[in-house]
Amino acid sequence: MKNTFKKLILFVLYVIFSVNGFTQNIAIKTKLVNVSIQKDTSFVKHVSVLLKKSDKTIIYPIFYDTELEKVSDIQLQLKKGKRLKPVKNIIIDEEDLQLDYITSKKVKSIFIPPQTEAKITYTIKCNELMYFSNLRFFSNDEIDTLKYQINVPKAFHFAYNILYKDSLNYIDIDSISLDSLTKWNIEVTPVKINPDPLALFGIYKNIREPLMRTLIVPTTYKKNERKYMNDWYFQKLKTRRGLSSVAIHKINELTKGISDPMKIVDILYSYVKNNFKYVAIEIGMGAFVPTYANEVFTNKQGDCKDLSNFLSEALKYKGIKSHIALAATYDHISDCDFPSLSSANHVICLAYIKDKPIILDPTDPIHLTGTPVQSIQKRSILIINSNGGEYYKIPGFSAQQNFINYKIALKANSNSMVMEGNFKASYGGISGNFLKRNFLYAGSNMINNVGKKHYESVFDNQSITDFKINNLDRTIETEGKISVNSKMFKDGDSKLLFIDFLPRIFETIDRETLLEGTHLGSPFKKKVSLKIEMDEPFQTFNPIEHTYVKKGISLIMKISSSSEFIIECEYEFVFDYIIMEKENVDITNEGLISFKKIVNEPITF
């Protein structure tokens, strides 16, 4: 009977975790995490969780990293009357979490029967202090009160930085200095977020929730935490460097007869991007410390830190100064502007030509040497070097460099009320990267189908044929034939023309307004010119003009009739932002609404 019950519970566990993706709703009165920093640079977490009653069986998960953490002393108490009584035979299941991007995580699952208040306590010990990199002020569960107590010996200093603090309803932080240690007490009412399995593993993708980034350093590094982080990582890198004779032979073969440093960078960068397979990250130290450079070369695969480390070693062998750097991509919870492992989710390589840093990301197949990496443009990185490390702000393309230009020429047929013609569009800088990524591994038929579908969407579902694309290194040029229907009508002796088929301002997003947190890829300048040639004369009209200018955004639009046969429309939109945030989301949406209002109004002639 006992085995049958356990099998049933395991099936429930499988359903909840595998099918629903950790969607059970756990209600918690209080969660207390007591963290004791040890003098040997390990740390111990004692966790106490008081759960509310539930109508259903609760499966409380303890996620941990088998490479770095050890879970022990799991205890369960169930409320009987007014007292909590310990459970002798706790039902605990342990499962490996073997996902594409996770190799060293496990989950211990504790089963609590329905209609019962319960208290769970357990201990997690970790031997790597750098792994104590953040305190979460958000949760998938409903937690009334979340408390952290951190005991820091006098030989250490506790540094922290809080992200998105304003979104918390309540937070209190204080510290008490004792003879041998400092006790930090942190209490918050955490933010409840939608279930996100990645967040359970410390992967904060597209999350904008409150988080405390943390770093414990020896007191000798107080006020110089960046150097401590750099030195720790630099020492780890030392053990993962060096090239075998086979790797050196290949590098020499690739660069034979070439002395120009920039050409060497291009050759080796291209070699790694095109000949090494990207594999996703591991958890544990494998998430931060690269694989040995020779192993990466032998296996021809690795993730960002592995490929960047090998590329850096290859460049240094050729006499080119090179470092690797910790970075945070646009979808990470934070910028890499505070020295904590939770600040970064990416690693890149830097080459120095005449002391100028050249950003290289071997995991970005369309990145061009000498241009900003799109995923980290205008973000901070921590360059790891022998001089204590340094922060560096990645440059980004300007809106003017990312110039998008549309030219549309149509001829109207008054009998069929159809307008037919052609369009041409060109994308400068990285404004066309979304097309390059879509077309990277596509054959000609797929390119035509994807391109046709994209531009039909851009032109408000009008018909596109004969689509062509010219994918150049620095620009993308596209063209096609277009047929516009149901936009021209007769009204007695007048005609009504709707121009709501004009290319929408943001091509990669089909929403009429944008949400906070939306990533737009890059700033850009977009110019659209439409010329319609009528087959019957009409009475010209006064130009219709519209201007919308706010900080970082401008829209200038004009509709005119240059002759009794020609109607012209032109708009120019300049946008200086990469992501929608509180300070720009409203002004952007106001601009989009004003644009939509004009193109939805018919032109009468």
Describe this structure in words.
A hairpin with a 2-residue loop joins strand 20 and strand 21. The model is unreliable at about 1-20 (pLDDT under 50). About 20% of the residues lie in helices and about 40% in strands. The chain is an alpha+beta fold. The strands form 8 sheets. Strands 5-4-8-2-1-11-14-13 form an 8-stranded mixed β-sheet, with no helix packed on it. Strands 26-27-25-24-30-33-32-31 form an 8-stranded mixed β-sheet, covered by helices on one side. The longest helix is centred in the last third of the chain and has 19 residues, at about 580-600. The protein contains 10 helices and 34 strands. Helix 6 (about 295-300) packs across helix 7 (about 305-315). The termini are far apart.
Jot down its keywords.
34 strands, 39% strand, alpha+beta, 605 residues, 8-stranded mixed sheet, 20% helix
**Strand sequence of the main sheet, in spatial order?**
5-4-8-2-1-11-14-13
The global form is globular
Residue-averaged pLDDT: 90
Low-confidence stretches: 1-22
- Helix-strand makeup class: alpha+beta
Strand count, sense and closure of the main sheet?
8 strands, mixed
Radius of gyration: 30 Å
Task: Determine the strand fraction and express it as a percent band.
Answer: 35-45%
Helix % is 10-25%
Instruction: Give the beta-strand count.
Output: 34
Helix count, DSSP H or I runs of 4 or more residues: 10
Distance between the termini: 84 Å
